Structures are given as C-alpha cells and as structure tokens.
C-alpha cells in the first residue's frame, strides 16, 4: 500500500456525521441475523432444520439483541441448490413445513418484536417451476419468460450460442430436447435464467414480492443481483462471446472469462429501483414500520453505491457491504482494515446508512478465515461501527468451518468440480448444524444423522456452554450488542484510524454523550499506543467497557489515554470518563 494511503489512514480524518435521532428508522441502526434454515434447528427429527425449529428458538435471537432475521430460501424446491432453485415462489417447501407453520413464525416474531426478512431469488427459477415447463412447451404466455436460443451450427455440429461459462462450471447453456433450443442458466442447469427483458416477467416477480409482504414479511434479501441481466442481443438475436481471463487456465472454471456481458448490466440497477417501488407501494397499503430491501452483489464500489438510489429513485436500503468479507485476509494489516472501512464510509451517498458484514452462508467463517483469536475483533468491528450490523448464524459464538470429505460433499458448486478442486469451491463447511448445546448432534436434531455433519468441537463451542463463560465469544457479542443502545453508538460520528500496521482504532462521538473508542490489536506483538495522538477531544483517562479474553484488564478498569497497553490479539472498547 502506498505511503499516501498510510498517511491518510494514520491521520485524524474528519468525522462522518450521522443522522439525527428523528431521522433514524428501525433498520438504520438494526442488528440483522442470517438464518440458514436447513442448519438452524430441526423440530421433527429428520436431520434438516425447519420453520418450527426457527420458531422454537426465536427467543435466542431476542437474547442476543437481534432486530430482524433473514431466512435463506424456504420455498418449494427440488433442492438442486438447496432452495435457491425455486419451483413455486409463493409456497413453502414441505421439508421446512407448511404455510401455517410460517404464519406461526410470523406471529411469534411479532410477539418478540423481531422482523422476518425473506430471501428472494430473482435471477432464475427451478427447471421444475410451472413457468419453465410452460415456456419449454412453447406456450404463448410463457415462451419468452426465459432466455432461449437455437444455438449455432459449426461444421455441421450444433453448439451453444456463446462461450459463456456458468458460476457452477461449464457452459451457461443447456439444450432442451422438447423446445429444440438452448436455455441460459448462469448457475446450475436446473436453475434457468428468467428473461427480464420481458415486461411480463418483471410484473410476475413484483407480484411475488407483494404476496409475501402482504403475508407479513418485512422485506427481502435479494440474491445474486448482478446476474439478472445480460447484455441485449443484437438485431439478429445473438450475443457476443466474453473475453478470456489470461490468469486462469481451466476452461470450465467461471473465472476463465471476464464476465463483462453477463454481470452488472445497467438495467440491473433499474430493476432494484422497480422492486423498491413495490416496497413503497406496500408500505402505503399496509402502513406500520418500513419494509426493506437488502441486495447481494459482489460488484465494484461505484456500482454498489448506485444500489442505494440515484436522487430520483429510491433503491436498496442495504446494499450488502462485502468489502471486509471479501478482502480482509489472515495477513491483512490495520492499514488495510482502515482503508476498506473508509472506502464505504467515504463513498456512501449523503443520507444513506452503512452496513458491516464479516460472514455469510457462501464464505469461510471468521474463525477459519482470519483465525479463532480474531473472532471477537471482527464482531467488535461489525457491532461498533456506525449503521447496521449483519451476523451469520454461529459467528456470535465462534463457530468455524467443518471439514467435509469429497464423499460427503453435497454443495452443487463443489459437486460439479472434482475431488482435487472441490475444497476451493465447496460451501458446505460453513453451513453445518448450529451448535446449541453439548447434547447429541449439538442439540440441533434428534435424528440418527444430520444433513451435514456436526462440528467435532461442538462440546466446547455451543450456546449453552458459552452462556456460562464470562468472556466467551457469545457473551462478548451480547455486551457489544447492549452497547449499541447507547446514543453515541446509535447516532454518533465516527473517526477511523490505523495506528501503525498492527492496531486499528475508531472513535464514536456525540455531543453531550460519552465517546467510545474501539481498539484492536490485529497481530501478535504487545503494543503501547497513544490515543491522544490520533483522536481529539478525549479525556486523559479512559474506562474499559468491553474486553476480550486476551486482555489483562477487566471491565470498568481505567487507563491513561496516552499509554494504552494491548496484549497480542486484544480487542477492547473504551469510553471517556
């Protein structure tokens, strides 16, 4: 990293001013929690989590201070991609329960003041969806609901229309014998892409949103948004090939090509704005608290900022900020953390709210990716920076990736690879059953076996045990969550600095209130730091508010602001006195 970046991150940068209390809605300082339903809680003993299991454990979400939870797909599906291949967009898959079970979940969530957010998959359906069956049969109403092409004939052999490669390896095109044409699928062959250049598709998907909002969902996490549109076909109905990525030599691998024609098309942003109009429409119809959109996109920062809106149209309230998740690694230093945090805060449109994410169902867990001794640090970052915190189930107690052999692998992204390459692609290790206790199957299920194996360390890493350990990951998480109710944490400005390569620090401040300073020693050296040299208007003495198990200090201890001693991997929150 250049000297200029280091200088900027070391300097006391201007504080970012956040909205006043009157402007803050429920979601603007909320705690979101992702539930992967197959792995959260099994209520009926079949080894797979379900809706009733979620309902049974909603009180746990209240215990850890969650405002809203989004559920990975629970809709009718043949489960080729574990629910992301939806066959009926307005019904519940029997493996998870019934519509009545979902309604009971909504009722219990309302009692606990927890909002339910659903996963919405706009890019594709299952090939078993009635729409696709009718489209493949050539029915007039549905024939253009999906992307079809007869292909091209080269030397007498019919071939796919382009060289496009799918996320799950191999061609994006599969031949359909009945239709006598290829259909497009950016993911699995059982996940045909919808054709959003057909206005009927847009309206049909808007109706899906309306259905679940009227049912009682408070919004949607929108899956794989950048893939929804491809570049328009030319006058002859053809598309261009995508250029090579010269750094990748496996012609079946998704990264073999540069996906300039199949991701991040400008119409994608406009579709998000159209979906937000549905949210606003239902807000007007039903009243009550705001309903929201969260959008999943691993896209360049300048594109992500457009998801918020453009001054004329409202967009996604929460475009997922994957900066830390995607870019922070085991060897990242404090300058890198600071730079990535500033990237979002400094580029965010005025009046919008930041969000912070370190984990999800597609990426290696914090403790495996960064090291188990950095779990508390990651949770401190997510929970004490301004805006919205987003936690993937299990990260609050320090669950880590579980090794799953090739023979036991079920993730289609890995299964379509090979035994030599599957570990790079598999997402199974982060989707294993939630560890509730030291009982059989970690208290997740009474079944003889579970859909994925339970972690071997479940007797040490589980909710029941960590509740009883003062400085467990779970209890530190709960302390941090409680701190978020302080006005300074809800509304205060933020100043973020790297203090050398090993220490990240940021101060939250609000007129008339205590200031709070999060200080994290990322590496293995003992560090002595002078906070007076990087932050203005702090008291000469500071009080420890939250400590982790690396600290020799205890809560309520005092320290001088010009000589704060940090043990290796220590992470603390201090306050002015």
UniProtKB/TrEMBL annotation:
Top class in the EC scheme: hydrolase
Catalysed reactions, as listed in the record: Hydrolysis of terminal, non-reducing (1->4)-linked alpha-D-glucose residues with release of alpha-D-glucose
Gene Ontology MF term list: alpha-1,4-glucosidase activity
E.C. code: 3.2.1.20
Keywords per UniProt: Glycoprotein, Glycosidase, Hydrolase, Signal
GO aspect biological process, one term: carbohydrate metabolic process
SMART domains from the UniProt entry: Aamy
Pfam families (alphabetical): Alpha-amylase
UniProt keyword Cell wall biogenesis/degradation, yes or no: no
InterPro entries: GH, GH13_cat_dom, Glyco_hydro_b, O16G_dom_2
Cleavable signal peptide: 1-22
Cited SUPFAM superfamilies: (Trans)glycosidases
Record-annotated Glycosyl hydrolase family 13 catalytic domain positions: 34-431
Keyword Zinc-finger in annotation: no
Recorded family membership: Belongs to the glycosyl hydrolase 13 family.
Name of the molecule in the record: alpha-glucosidase
Organism: Drosophila guanche
């Amino acid at each position: 990293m250049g000297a200029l970046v280091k200088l900027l991150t070391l300097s006391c940068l201007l504080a970012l001013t956040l909205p006043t209390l009157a402007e803050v809605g429920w979601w603007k300082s909320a705690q979101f929690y992702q539930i992967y339903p197959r792995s959260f809680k099994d209520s009926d003993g079949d080894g797979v989590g379900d809706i009733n299991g979620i309902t049974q454990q909603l009180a746990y979400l209240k215990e850890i201070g969650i405002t809203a939870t989004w559920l990975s797909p629970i809709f009718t599906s043949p489960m080729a991609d574990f629910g992301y291949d939806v066959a009926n967009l307005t019904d519940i898959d029997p493996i998870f329960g019934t519509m009545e079970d979902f309604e009971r979940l909504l009722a219990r969530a309302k009692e606990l003041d927890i909002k339910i957010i659903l996963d919405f998959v706009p890019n594709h359906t299952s090939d078993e969806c009635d729409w696709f069956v009718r489209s493949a049969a050539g029915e007039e109403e549905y024939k253009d609901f999906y992307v079809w092409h007869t292909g091209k004939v080269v030397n007498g052999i019919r071939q796919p229309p382009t060289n496009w490669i799918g996320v799950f390896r191999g061609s994006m095109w599969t031949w359909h014998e009945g239709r006598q044409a290829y259909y497009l699928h950016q993911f699995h062959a059982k996940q045909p892409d919808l054709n959003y250049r057909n206005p009927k598709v847009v309206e049909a998907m808007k109706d899906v949103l309306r259905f679940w909002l009227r049912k009682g969902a408070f919004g949607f996490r929108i899956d794989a948004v950048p893939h929804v549109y491809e570049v328009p076909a030319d006058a002859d109905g053809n598309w261009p090939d995508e250029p090579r990525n010269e750094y990748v030599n496996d012609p079946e691998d998704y990264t073999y090509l540069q996906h300039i024609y199949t991701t991040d098309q400008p119409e994608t942003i406009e579709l998000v704005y159209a979906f937000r109009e549905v949210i606003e429409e239902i807000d007007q119809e039903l009243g009550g608290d705001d309903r929201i959109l969260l959008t999943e996109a691993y896209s360049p920062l300048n594109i992500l900022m457009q998801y918020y809106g453009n001054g004329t149209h409202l967009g996604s309230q929460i475009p997922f900020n994957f900066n830390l998740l995607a870019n922070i690694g085991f060897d990242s230093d404090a300058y890198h953390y600071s730079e990535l945090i500033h990237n979002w805060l400094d580029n965010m449109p005025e009046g919008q709210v930041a969000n912070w994410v370190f984990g999800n169902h597609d990426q290696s867990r914090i403790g495996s990716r960064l090291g188990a001794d950095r779990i508390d640090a990651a949770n401190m970052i997510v929970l004490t920076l301004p805006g919205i915190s987003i936690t993937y189930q299990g990260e609050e107690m320090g669950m880590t990736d579980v090794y799953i052999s090739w023979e036991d692998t079920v993730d289609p992204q890995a299964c379509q690879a090979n035994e030599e390459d599957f570990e790079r692609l598999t997402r199974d290790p982060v989707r294993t059953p939630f560890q509730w206790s030291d009982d059989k199957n970690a208290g997740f299920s009474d079944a003889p076996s579970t859909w994925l194996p339970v972690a071997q360390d479940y007797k040490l890493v589980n909710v029941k045990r960590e509740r009883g350990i003062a400085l467990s990951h779970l209890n530190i998480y709960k302390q941090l969550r409680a701190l978020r109710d302080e006005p300074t944490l809800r509304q205060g400005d933020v100043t973020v600095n790297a203090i050398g390569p090993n220490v990240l620090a940021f101060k939250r401040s609000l007129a008339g209130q205590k200031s709070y300073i999060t200080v994290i020693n990322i590496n293995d050296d003992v560090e002595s730091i002078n906070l007076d040299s990087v932050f203005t208007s702090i008291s000469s003495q500071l009080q420890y508010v939250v400590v982790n198990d690396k600290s020799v200090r205890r809560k309520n201890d005092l320290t001088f602001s010009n000589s704060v001693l940090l043990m290796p991997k220590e992470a603390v929150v201090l306050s002015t006195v």
